[in-house]
User: Which sequence fits this backbone?
């Protein structure tokens, strides 16, 4: 009730200020805490991780790992914090976050603003021992060797998390997306996997890719993923496309997330699903606003999904609605478990 009453007020504030207030409200216990939501249909495993349900929080919401405990109680099956970079950095100048209310979307150009891997690792060390928590690995804007930054962050934080994601798909760090090319990506992932092997308990490593990729580029990414032995691919990050937008903020620079990204990201997901044919699990992200969207991603080939922007408009209630609604859709469509729904409609998205 507090969250519902507060949303109109929050939307009167600058988006980044509102985001900070949301994190503080969670820390003060002012959001609902249903705990992990699960059922026999929702329980699943991805890359060796046992999840109570397949709905996760995408990176970017809790950049500095300040709200891990309350986020694990909002109904998510897993959460991802960060992106973390080796050194602290302020990110791009403000304003850098824009609500596109007419489009149920957002544009951000944060530029990996975070307090650095050391500070984030210290918080991760104190995290609750239950719940699945991952770290999004980033690179410093001024780094002379961005590829090495990903391995560096993993070495600092890896022992405190359950998985790590290599983020080469943010559009807000100059030349970062260039690392998605086959040769550069293979070298980068080999470096991260080498760093992972030095951990006392190596963890699953995922790769997060952009939606603005050609068929050939996706084929290169799929081949690099198989060659390097990573555990999964997260498809996708934000887009540079502005097709069909209505908001006056539509020309702002940065990455677009939210409802307009759904179709584009789901098509990329389906293409990868066809290319990989079950050899590497996929996590579907982009434009999930309700249970039907989450179910569509799973049917397109995702083993799990993540969301973020829809909470800007619906609060944490969105999480509970998506998880409970997904459970109902699985039952309605005759699935005793999510595993039998994965990829059943991939061809419809090709």
Assistant:
């Amino acid at each position: 009730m507090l969250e519902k009453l507060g949303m109109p007020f929050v939307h009167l504030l600058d988006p980044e200020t509102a985001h900070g207030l949301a994190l503080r409200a969670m820390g003060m216990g002012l959001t609902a805490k249903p705990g992990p939501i699960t059922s026999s249909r929702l329980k699943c495993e991805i890359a060796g991780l046992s999840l109570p349900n397949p709905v996760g929080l995408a990176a970017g919401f809790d950049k500095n790992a300040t709200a891990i405990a309350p986020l694990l109680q909002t109904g998510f099956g897993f959460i991802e914090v960060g992106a973390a970079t080796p050194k602290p950095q302020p990110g791009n100048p403000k304003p850098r976050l824009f609500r596109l209310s007419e489009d149920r979307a957002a544009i951000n150009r944060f530029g990996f603003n975070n307090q650095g891997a050391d500070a984030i690792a210290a918080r991760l060390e104190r995290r609750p021992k239950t719940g699945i928590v991952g770290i999004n690995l980033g690179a410093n804007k001024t780094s002379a060797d961005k590829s090495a930054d990903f391995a560096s962050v993993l070495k600092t934080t890896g022992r405190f998390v359950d998985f790590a994601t290599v983020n080469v798909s943010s559009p807000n760090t100059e030349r970062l997306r260039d690392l998605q090319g086959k040769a550069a990506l293979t070298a980068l992932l080999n470096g991260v996997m080498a760093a992972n092997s030095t951990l006392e308990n190596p963890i699953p490593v995922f790769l997060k890719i952009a939606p603005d990729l050609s068929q050939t580029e996706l084929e290169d990414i799929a081949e690099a993923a198989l060659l390097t032995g990573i555990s999964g691919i997260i498809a996708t990050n934000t887009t540079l496309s502005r097709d069909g937008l209505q908001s006056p903020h539509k020309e702002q620079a940065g990455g677009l997330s939210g409802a307009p990204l759904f179709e584009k990201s789901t098509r990329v997901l389906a293409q990868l699903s066809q290319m990989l044919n079950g050899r590497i699990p996929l996590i579907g992200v982009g434009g999930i606003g309700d249970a039907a969207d989450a179910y569509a991603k799973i049917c397109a080939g995702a083993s799990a999904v993540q969301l973020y922007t829809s909470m800007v408009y619906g609060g944490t209630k969105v999480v509970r609605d998506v998880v409970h609604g997904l459970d109902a859709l699985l039952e309605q469509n005759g699935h005793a478990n999510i595993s039998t729904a994965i990829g059943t409609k991939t061809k419809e998205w090709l």
Observations:
- The mean pLDDT is 94.
- The longest strand covers residues 78-84.
